[in-house]
Structure formats: structure tokens, C-alpha cells
Design goal:
The complex is a heterodimer of chains A (about 600) and B (about 180). Chain A has about 600 residues and is α+β, with helices and mostly antiparallel strands. Chain A has 24 helices and 17 strands. Chain A has a six-stranded mixed sheet with strand order 2-1-6-3-4-5, with helices on both faces. Chain B is of the alpha+beta class. In chain B, strand 4 and strand 5 form a beta hairpin.
């Protein structure tokens, strides 16, 4: 028996939007010590719900369960504790999906006295959910229909009469069930991937509003402070700490370009000739007006940017971070940083994932350029690389499902269904469009994308830097092991409800997190034991996906990586080899104890009943 | 020497670490809502973030607003005397900065006490947006800027160990008033 002495309220808030009722379910110590929190809780409840529906769930149906879960660390005094996750069956992929966001929303939610929220059903009219320190109400708000995310957040704050409530909100794209609609909070932070915004839209829920005042439970606050001060001292003395605050994730643009992995012209190329006009230094010198950080984060990786002149003057964005800038910049051939900011702002306001938007518009431009689709297909308006004004129009069309936008709004699965000839130039895995790292020269990264439980996103494994910097002559087994290590430790941060950047970017030792965990919960788990919990959750999400039809055939990198060599830059000529990939996939399955088709041992199902 | 808290909003990232450490050091709990400092963010564009915290005014408006004279300034800090306070919360409204706070769990309003002379928020702020400086240093940046922007200032560039540097000076005999 594991006695949990802190870190949790032991309460799940379950809301049924159809009947407008809610109940509080107690969470046992056994449950907590097995699933930890965040994505761990979410995966288990999504699994239970799938079983209750015989594994037949329409992601946009009333029966789909959406879980919102911060973790036991969220809101505490330890580095970067502002994270919260959304977990569900994704409308983009039809399989397990999750996405996390920073800001303060998860902290404020925890202060209402709950550990997690689960949503099912569908509100009879467009509404928002208001969790006010333990009081729950579903408030009809038809007047918010069609309003942008940022605008809605302001309107709700005014309506409640308190500027310090925190709001998670969807834009028009979420209301229109765009497959990659996101959830936005704090005027510009997003849970961007796997279409969690569309699920809120399908439930007629425009926003979740939280206001809490409760103390966050910590078992040994003194010990936690001690551990935290050690970690913070390390971070503040790191040689890149200040540079990190100055550029944040935008510093990756130059890094990726120099390494030859910056997506350019729909991933055809790995470096961008005009990179200087969209890199971190351009941002810093001409556009940046402030730093922004998530809760309790010393690193402040986010930037506030303002366009001061020209046709996009007045555009304000919290961001862009690397992915948004690469996908909406070099990937579309756009070398005007103000246009990148504008496109990012539009995606935020309309409520769409910048990674997928940049991907699909890139596909459209290349498809038209190479004659795979006709001028008629794109409504008589020629699309070319770098044409920022047309890109803005397509972004609007997607969110409002107009014309060609209606096809793109279905995500890459819908695009391939409509235009099968585009399939070889779409970079996606399992229906989720790839994030911004070219991996033709990094087979571990390709493996990471191919076996990620949500599709082609780097949230589960980001091994590319290590492989390109010092792992070129590693064996395939070493590379597969690195991927599994990443797929185990990175989701652990999502279970704790903290950001992984202090670890991955500034090298904060992972053992700090085991020390935090024992101070917060009183459970004496070693890092290895915590990693084992995370690994179990990976098996569980795999089990979910296998039940939904996923197998070896789906664990494949985008076709482009095998066919089209990198054109320029240090990796010119590189291409993935099919045989080598098949071998590393075999090794990966063996290391995971899955069979040759990627199925976990059926016995493990018992663990989760 | 009297010291004062000085806020530089341009530096604030909105991370609320100041709120966290304040609640931990004063109430021994993790609860930003029990902090005597609050980071406010403008909207709908989160352009400016600013920690709001008591200035320890020499002529405190909160004391003027207090009907029972519970608020006085002693040794450089403005204090609320709990024995006298009736918790009517008039001070929350009369403070021109909104730097006095209340919480459901706490009987009396609370405000910054400078942690007895070594403020935790100053030490914890990762952006150095909250400073604790001698009062006479306040305004020094403006004073020196005023000197440097004197209209007769001239500038020359020179190289020292290969590094480009500048010197500013004003020429004698060219004064016209």
C-alpha cells in the first residue's frame, strides 16, 4: 500500500455536458501511485471509456471523453511548473491523442481543489464551463459563437468581472471541428496538437474558466524548497541561461538551419537561403518587446513580438516559437518575419495548430507547383512559395471551412482521401502532420516520429540533436534505446505537469525530479521506478492504438524521407534507407517487448483493468 | 539607509515566482493568492506585465482610508496592526496601487513587509525585475539619461584592443543659453 501524503486533492471532477450535471470521484492512493497524473490519468480514463464503448468511438461524438489534467507538480515552487495536458481520442488521427500547454491555467485549476477534469456529452447550446473554487456551472454563451480565441478570453474576463480568472478557449476553428483546432490560454499559449480544440467544439464548449484560491498540497515544503533552490541555482548559472531568455526557442532556427534540418519548401529542403530574415537575431533586434514565461519558469522561453510598421503593423504575438516560425516561415518560403508573426497571430486567434497549418499549406503550394493538383482545385488563385498574403487567406478559409479550406480542415487524412496523388509529399505519421525537424539523416528521429503514440510529433522523442552531434556511428540498437529513453522520460514530465525544457535544453539532471516527487508526495520512488510508471503508460497508449487498428504498417516515417534526398546544406543528398529503417523498427519492438507487428503482449492488458 | 522596492515592468516575464515565494515565506503554503505581490498582465494583448507591490509610502493613503487608525509607518514599512484592524477592507480600495490583499482563509488584509529587510521576491525573480535599492538611487537612471541627452553632447568613436567604443563630451566655449 502506497500512502500518498501530498501533491493531490484526491478528486476528479466529472462533468456531463448533456445532462448539465457534475460529480466528484475520489482518487485512491493506489490509483495515484500507479498513474501519477497528467497524461497518466488521462490515458487510463480514455482506455476505460473506450472499453465501455467496445472500442468504437467517434472522436467528435458525445461519447468521446476529454480529460484535462495538470500534474502533482503543477503550480508548485519548482522550475517551470505551469503545464497541463488534454487527453482524448483525436479527431485528427482517430487514435490516442494528447497535447499540453503552459501558462497559468493548470495552476489556477488545481487551486479549485481538483486534480483533473473529465468531460463527456454535449451542451445543448454554445456554453462555457466555470469552475469557481469548487462550484461548477455550465453557462450558456451563444453570443461568443465565431469569436476569436483572444477576443473571447477578454470578453469572458469582462463578463465575470475579474481579470485574473484563467480561461482555456477555442476559436472559430474549434467550433467548426477543424481536425487540428487547438485550445488557447493566456492570450497565446496553446495545446496545439491532435485537435483537442475540435473535441471541445463538438461538445459545444467554447471555454473552460477557472478561479481557485486553495493551497496546493505539498508533503514536505521545506525539503521541496531546498531541492528547488539547488535546481534554480544550477539553471541561473548555466552559460546559456541569459541567451535562452533573450531568444528562447527562436534560437533553434539558426541551429536547425546550420544542421541542415530546417523544414524548407514543404520539407523538400533542410536549409533556407534567407534564414537571416526569420531567425532569432532578427526577432530580437526588430520585433521583440518583452519576455514571457509560463508559471514559475526562470527560463522565459517565450517572446512578445510586435510589428511596428508595414502592412502587418499592430500585430502582437506571444511567440513565435521555433516550430511556428519554421512551419509558417521557411516551410512556406516566407522570408518576411512580420508575415510569420501575422500568420501565427491568425492561427492563435482562429484557434489552429501552427505546425499542421504550415504543413498543409506547404503541401498545397508544392502540389500546385508540380501539377499534382490543378488551378481549379485551389479555386483559381495561383499559390506560390513566399506569397504571404495568399497564405493568410488560406488560413482564414481553413478555420471557416470555406472552399479548399474545407478539405484542409479535415487534416492530412482528408487531404489524402480527396487527392491521393498528394500522399507522397505529405509529411505525416498516423494522420498527424510532422513537426519541424527533417530527419532524413537521423534515423533515430525518424523512428521517434514513426513510433510516437500520437503521430509525427517530437513531444515523445527529440533525439535529432544528439544523433547529429555525437551519434553518427552509433549502432542501431543504441539509437533505438535512446528513442525509448526519450519516449519514457519526456512523457514523465507531462505526468508531473512540468515543462521538460530545463532538462532537455539546459541539462538539469533528471534525478532532481525524483527528489521533487518524494518531497511533494511523500512517496519514495527512485527515478527508475518513476520511469517504469511512464513506460507502463506508453504500453497503455500503444494498447489503445492497437485496439483501434494501429500496427507495424502505421509505424512508418513519411514517404518523402525515403524518396527525396535533401537538396542543399550540410546534409545534401541524405535519404533514409528502407531496409535500415525496417531493422531499427524490429530492434525497437524487441526492446519494448512488443511482437513483430508492434503488438504488446496481451497479458499486459490486465495491468490496466 | 532606507531601501525601497523598485519595479522594472519591461523585464517582468509574468512567471509569478515572486507570488510563490511570498506565499511560502509568509504563510508557509504554496498559494499565489496569499502573496503580498501580484503580477498583473494587460489584455487582450499581454504586452506589459508588472508586479504590484506596496511602495511603503511616507504618507500612506491606506492609513488615511483606515477608519480605526490601524495602519502606521514604522521603520520604513507600512504596517497593519492586527489588534486594531477590523478587517473592513477599506484599505484595499484606498491604496492607489492596489497593493493590499485579502484571502478567504486569512482574517486580516495583508501587504508587503519587506521580509524584515531582505525581500524573498527580489532574490527569486529570475529576470531581476524587482530590485531592492537605497531610496536615493531611485531616479538615478533618469538623471544620468538627462545628462547624456544634453543637446550639446558630442560623440566620438575610437578603438581599444580592436573593440569599437564611444566617448561623449561637451565642448567648452560653445555654450549658448
Amino acid at each position: 500500500m502506497n500512502k500518498v501524503k501530498g501533491g493531490y486533492f484526491h478528486k476528479l471532477l466529472k462533468v456531463d455536458l448533456s445532462s448539465k450535471t457534475w460529480e466528484v470521484e475520489p482518487l485512491s492512493d493506489d490509483f495515484i501511485s500507479k498513474y501519477i497524473g497528467g497524461r497518466g490519468f488521462g490515458a487510463k480514463w480514455v482506455w476505460d471509456n473506450l472499453k465501455a464503448h467496445n472500442f468504437k468511438i467517434d472522436p467528435l461524438g458525445e461519447e468521446n471523453l476529454l480529460v484535462m489534467a495538470p500534474g502533482p507538480f503543477t503550480g508548485l515552487y519548482l522550475p517551470s511548473s505551469g503545464k497541463t495536458s488534454f487527453i482524448s481520442i483525436s479527431p485528427a488521427t482517430g487514435i490516442y491523442g494528447d497535447s499540453s500547454m503552459g501558462g497559468v491555467f493548470g495552476v489556477e485549476f488545481r487551486q479549485t481543489g481538483f486534480d483533473a477534469l473529465s468531460l463527456k456529452g454535449k451542451a445543448p447550446e454554445l456554453s462555457f464551463l466555470f469552475i469557481d473554487d469548487g462550484d461548477v456551472s455550465i453557462v450558456p454563451a451563444p453570443e461568443l459563437a465565431g469569436k476569436g480565441s483572444l477576443e473571447t478570453e477578454g470578453l469572458i474576463k469582462q463578463r465575470i468581472g475579474d481579470l485574473t480568472v484563467h480561461v482555456a478557449v477555442i476559436g472559430p476553428a474549434g467550433e467548426n471541428r477543424v481536425a487540428f483546432a487547438c485550445v488557447n490560454t493566456d492570450f497565446g499559449r496553446n495545446a496545439g496538437r491532435t485537435g483537442v480544440g475540435a473535441i471541445l467544439g463538438s461538445k459545444n464548449l467554447k471555454a473552460i474558466v477557472v478561479r481557485g484560491s486553495k493551497d496546493l498540497p505539498v508533503y514536505d515544503l521545506k525539503k521541496l524548497n531546498l531541492e528547488t533552490n539547488k535546481a534554480i541555482t544550477y539553471l541561473r548559472n548555466h552559460k546559456f541561461f541569459k541567451f535562452w531568455q533573450e531568444q528562447g526557442l527562436m534560437c533553434v532556427i539558426d541551429y536547425a538551419n546550420n544542421m541542415g534540418i530546417l523544414p524548407t519548401h514543404n520539407f523538400r529542403d533542410g536549409s533556407f537561403a534567407r534564414v537571416n530574415s526569420i531567425n532569432g537575431f532578427t526577432m530580437e533586434s526588430k520585433y521583440k518587446i518583452g519576455d514571457a514565461a509560463c508559471f514559475a519558469c526562470p527560463m522565459a522561453c517565450s517572446n512578445i513580438c510586435l510589428v511596428k510598421e508595414g502592412k502587418y503593423a499592430g500585430t502582437v504575438v506571444e511567440g513565435p516559437e521555433y516550430e511556428s516560425c519554421a512551419m509558417l516561415g521557411s516551410n512556406l518560403g516566407i522570408d518576411n518575419f512580420a508575415a510569420v508573426l501575422r500568420a501565427n497571430h491568425l492561427c492563435d486567434e482562429l484557434g489552429m495548430d501552427t505546425i499542421t497549418v504550415g504543413n498543409l499549406i506547404g503541401v498545397l503550394i508544392e502540389g500546385y507547383e508540380t501539377g499534382l493538383i490543378s488551378l481549379k482545385d485551389i479555386e483559381g488563385e495561383p499559390l506560390t512559395w513566399g506569397d504571404d498574403e495568399k497564405v493568410m487567406r488560406v488560413i482564414e478559409k481553413i478555420a471557416r471551412r470555406e472552399g479548399v479550406g474545407d478539405i484542409l480542415a479535415g487534416g492530412s487524412r482528408k487531404v489524402i482521401e480527396t487527392w491521393p496523388q498528394l500522399s507522397p509529399i505529405i509529411s505525416q505519421v498516423k494522420g498527424l502532420e510532422q513537426s519541424a525537424y527533417d530527419c532524413r539523416a537521423a534515423i533515430s528521429m525518424a523512428l521517434g516520429y514513426a513510433t510516437s503514440d500520437i503521430g509525427a510529433h517530437h513531444t515523445r522523442a527529440w533525439t535529432i540533436a544528439k544523433e547529429l552531434e555525437d551519434g553518427r556511428d552509433w549502432s542501431l540498437e543504441e539509437k533505438a534505446k535512446l528513442v525509448i529513453f526519450h519516449q519514457t522520460i519526456r512523457p514523465l514530465f507531462d505526468m508531473f505537469g512540468v515543462c521538460r525544457l530545463p532538462w532537455i535544453e539546459l541539462g538539469l539532471n533528471e534525478n532532481h525530479y525524483a527528489a521533487f516527487f518524494s518531497a511533494v508526495t511523500g512517496l519514495d520512488y527512485s527515478l527508475d521506478e518513476l520511469m517504469a510508471r511512464s513506460r507502463d503508460i506508453y504500453d497503455l497508449t500503444r494498447l489503445i492504438n492497437v485496439k483501434l487498428g494501429i500496427s507495424r504498417k502505421d509505424d512508418q516515417p513519411p514517404l518523402r524521407w525515403f524518396k527525396d534526398p535533401v537538396q542543399t546544406g550540410p546534409l545534401a543528398g541524405k535519404v533514409l534507407k528502407r531496409e535500415e529503417f525496417n531493422t531499427i523498427l524490429d530492434i525497437y519492438y524487441q526492446l519494448r517487448n512488443w511482437d513483430a507487428e508492434g503488438k504488446p503482449n496481451p497479458e499486459i492488458e490486465k495491468n490496466f483493468n | 539607509m532606507s531601501k525601497q522596492l523598485a519595479i522594472i515592468p519591461e523585464r517582468c516575464s509574468g512567471c509569478k515566482t515572486c507570488e510563490l515565494v511570498c506565499s511560502i515565506s509568509h504563510f508557509n503554503v504554496t498559494n499565489p493568492k496569499k502573496a503580498a505581490v501580484r503580477v498583473m498582465v494587460v489584455y487582450p494583448h499581454p504586452i506589459v506585465r508588472m508586479p504590484i507591490i506596496c511602495s511603503q509610502c511616507r504618507i500612506p493613503k491606506c492609513a488615511d482610508g483606515c477608519p480605526v487608525n490601524a495602519i502606521t509607518r514604522k521603520n520604513g514599512t507600512v504596517e497593519i496592526d492586527k489588534d486594531t484592524c477590523i478587517s473592513c477592507l477599506k484599505c484595499l480600495e484606498s491604496c492607489p496601487f492596489g497593493a493590499i490583499f485579502i484571502h478567504d482563509d486569512v482574517e486580516y488584509p495583508f501587504k508587503c513587509d519587506l521580509c524584515g529587510g531582505d525581500p524573498e521576491c527580489v532574490k527569486a525573480c529570475p529576470k531581476n525585475a524587482i530590485l531592492f535599492i537605497p531610496e536615493h538611487v531611485l531616479g538615478q537612471a533618469q538623471r544620468i539619461n538627462n545628462v547624456l541627452s544634453y543637446s550639446h553632447m558630442k560623440e566620438i568613436e575610437y578603438f581599444e584592443k580592436g573593440e569599437k567604443k564611444q566617448i561623449r563630451y561637451a565642448e567648452i566655449g560653445k555654450e549658448d543659453v
